[in-house]
Design a protein that fits this description.
Oligomer: single chain
Distance between the termini: 9 Å
Number of strands: 26
């Protein structure tokens, strides 16, 4: 006997929650079309067929911020915060076909907003935006809001949907009952206020928050639900012990310490102009900080007419702080290449393919359980081949004169790269991709036939100044400036730059590795000790950097003396005694220079994505009540440690409780899947397959399918 009503609660209506709603709409519309025809004779099917008709859905959306954009993607945040992917790439839904649901950001851009009522500032940005340009996060947030609103409107009108209700609240707990779940709520009196500050609306934008639009913001203390979708995205995290101690001591001394945070939540006015500011972290949040501390304060980047790397000069406003920045690797993330795609079109993975890895796992990779491979032993040697092949082929194409005999070099290179791939080339009779003889042979070939090109040390890309000492701060500053200028020139050259295309191959390998992790083909110990410990930092620093524009700006700021780099492996301290008592200090053992002191310090990074470290009341309560646990990760010694994400099982991902039992209908999406997926913060690729670039949409679709099955 089918039920008449089924309540679904989506907690979090940012990108992941919006994807679930869109996929639910698409599945409902497809089911409706199927039910209108008999499966046998094409005759209309009787309405209300108990065998196939789902209960009417009552959908509750729990989101304290504007649904669609949520918190991180607020359309009211500073327009100086840029996305890290070009307009052609990201999406929250599959491409729209005909009058169906779905809509990628690139489609929305091409349609001039798809009928959305845009503020003048949004209209201008959208009109100027090309498919290879990097939109502001605020504009992408406006797209998310548009998709959400369109989906909710169609859901509300669907005959199989009883209601769609937005509860402007946060969930602070879930109670498991015999037949359903009780979701505890707390209302928010300001949807854009957080414990760490306020998002200031951008000039020219109206306040689109539900409360401001006249929506009743009253919410009950709790609601009942048959199913729950956890799509909470980025949540606050507790500071680690080092950060917490620095924050407490700084408060006692009257110093300013800003821990890891979402950039739009930081109080940038807390860092006064003209005073030293220590910044730890040279990743993407660092570039957001620079924008707020320079351009947002009246500084101006002026074109010089010079070539890439020196394309801009910076004119001070006089209100900038003196920025001293450092990170472990000692250099900022590299800029993305100027190419018309997320992965350069000319990049092809010849050696690392899903089919090859899958076949190896199925046959039994040496040293691994059947069905598993190791990253270092079986994946990296294949990807390393592809990176080197790409590098030297591009170098041969753009600078053949640097080779003694370019055709002979390429022919011999292919022979060496092919070595030990095929069973007949291996004395053991089975493919052992971890053998490394080929690597030494390729290095010898380069020394012999392309000494001017030189050997590409791929792992060294992650630490360009490793174990290199500098006799003064000025010497290090000059070295980083030269690095930035060379990086900008390489990005501007696009597919004609060997290093950028090698990094493109590395990036393509990262995307394939993401799939291999999601499909559980990589041994868990290997994933923890190899993928996450050394490969992730390497590929993040090389392939996940900002657009070229940001590196040009940073180089200009360095030349202007606004930004000074401190050195690799920095040490930040706040001592109670000695010469530097009562102030922050920072220094690097690789640079012979006295420590820099400051009364202000910024951690330029996002809050940690670890459920055991979360400061989210809901996620903490789920664990303390025994409704959830961190995924147990095995170690090399056979013990287990808490993983970064929740323990989940199946597809879709059902939450597992503290006793190891899966919930019947609590599903997890997004960042909290970091225990079973890798790269969970990466957006879905527009037009990508569910197996690869659009896996986040596949996850949302699997949830939608299961919700409708449960509702029958």
């Amino acid at each position: 006997m089918s039920r008449e009503r089924y309540v679904v609660t989506v907690i979090g209506a940012g990108p992941r929650g919006t994807s679930v709603l869109e996929r639910l709409l698409a599945r409902l519309e497809a089911d409706r079309r199927d039910r209108e025809l008999s499966p046998h004779d094409g005759e209309p099917r009787a309405e209300g067929s108990a065998a196939s008709t789902p209960a009417r859905l009552a959908i509750q959306i729990v989101e304290p911020y504007r649904p669609g954009s949520g918190h991180v993607w607020s359309s009211a945040q500073s327009r100086l915060f840029l996305m890290n992917t070009p307009a052609m790439y990201p999406t929250v839904a599959p491409p729209r076909e005909g009058d169906g649901p779905g809509l990628t950001f690139e489609q929305w851009r091409g349609l001039g907003g798809d009928g959305a009522v845009l503020a003048p500032v949004e209209q201008r940005e959208l009109a100027d935006l090309g498919p290879g340009d990097y939109p502001s996060r605020a504009l992408y947030g406006r797209y998310l809001e548009h998709v959400h609103d369109a989906v909710v409107a169609r859901l509300s009108a669907h005959p199989d949907v009883e209601s769609v209700e937005h509860l402007r609240a946060s969930s602070v707990g879930i109670e498991r009952r015999s037949a359903d779940y009780r979701i505890e709520l707390t209302a928010h009196d300001d949807a854009v206020r957080t414990s760490r500050g306020r998002i200031a609306p951008t000039a020219g934008l109206s306040d689109r928050r539900p409360g401001a639009a006249g929506v009743d913001s009253h919410v009950p203390e709790a609601v009942a639900s048959d199913a729950v979708v956890l799509a909470v995205g980025h949540v606050p995290a507790e500071l680690n012990p080092r950060q917490a101690a620095a924050g407490r001591r700084a408060e006692e001394l009257g110093l300013t310490y800003q821990g890891p945070n979402v950039p739009s939540d930081v109080d940038w006015a807390a860092f006064p102009g003209g005073e030293p500011l220590l910044v730890r972290g040279l990743g993407l949040n660092f570039f957001d900080a620079l924008a707020q501390l320079t351009t947002a304060r009246g500084g101006d980047f002026v074109p010089t007419g010079a070539g890439p790397g020196r394309a801009l000069d910076y004119r001070r406003s006089g209100r900038e702080p003196k920025i001293f920045a450092a990170s472990r690797r000692g250099a900022p993330y590299r800029a993305k290449a100027e190419v018309p795609a997320f992965v350069p079109p000319s990049v092809e993975l010849v050696y690392l393919t899903f089919e090859r890895v899958h076949a190896l796992a199925a046959a039994g990779a040496p040293g691994e359980p059947r069905g598993k491979v190791g990253f270092d032993a079986h994946i990296w040697p294949l990807l390393h081949r592809d990176v080197l092949r790409t590098y030297y082929r591009v170098a041969a194409r753009v600078a053949p004169e640097r080779f003694r005999d370019v055709d002979e070099f390429l022919a011999r290179l292919d022979v060496l790269l092919d070595a030990q791939i095929h069973p007949e080339q291996n004395v053991q009779g089975t493919p052992v991709h971890g053998q490394e003889v080929w690597r030494s042979q390729v290095a010898d070939l380069v020394d012999d036939m392309a000494p001017e090109v030189g050997w590409l040390d791929v792992p060294a890309l992650g630490a360009p100044f490793a174990k290199r000492g500098f006799t003064s701060a000025d010497a290090y500053q000059q070295a980083v400036l030269e690095y930035l200028e060379a990086d900008a020139a390489g990005s501007a050259a696009g597919e004609d730059d060997p290093l950028k295309m090698a990094i493109g191959a590395l990036h393509a390998g990262r995307l394939l590795t993401k799939r291999l992790v999601a499909e559980s083909l990589i041994d868990e110990v290997s994933r923890t000790d190899e993928v996450q410990k050394w490969f992730e930092p390497l590929v993040e620093g090389a392939a996940s950097g900002p657009p070229l524009r940001r590196i040009e700006e940073l180089a200009a700021l360095a030349r202007a003396g606004v930004v000074t780099f401190l050195g690799p492996d920095p040490v930040f301290t706040l001592d109670d005694e000695g010469e530097y008592s009562g102030v922050f200090t920072a220094s690097s053992r690789w640079v012979d220079a006295p420590p820099v002191t400051a009364h202000h310090m910024l951690e330029a990074m996002m809050p940690a994505n670890r459920v055991a470290q979360t400061a989210s009341p809901l996620l903490k309560r789920l664990q303390s009540d025994g409704l959830a646990r961190p995924i147990p990760i095995p170690t090399e010694d056979g013990e287990t440690v808490p993983g970064p994400g929740f323990d989940v099982v199946g597809t879709p991902y059902r939450l597992v409780d503290a006793s190891g039992i899966a919930h019947r209908s609590i599903f997890v999406l997004g960042l909290q899947l970091s225990g079973v997926q890798w790269g969970t913060a990466i957006a879905a690729e527009a037009g990508g397959s569910y197996d690869d670039g659009a896996r986040t949409l596949a996850d949302a679709d699997a949830v939608a399918v299961e919700l409708l099955r449960l509702a029958r």
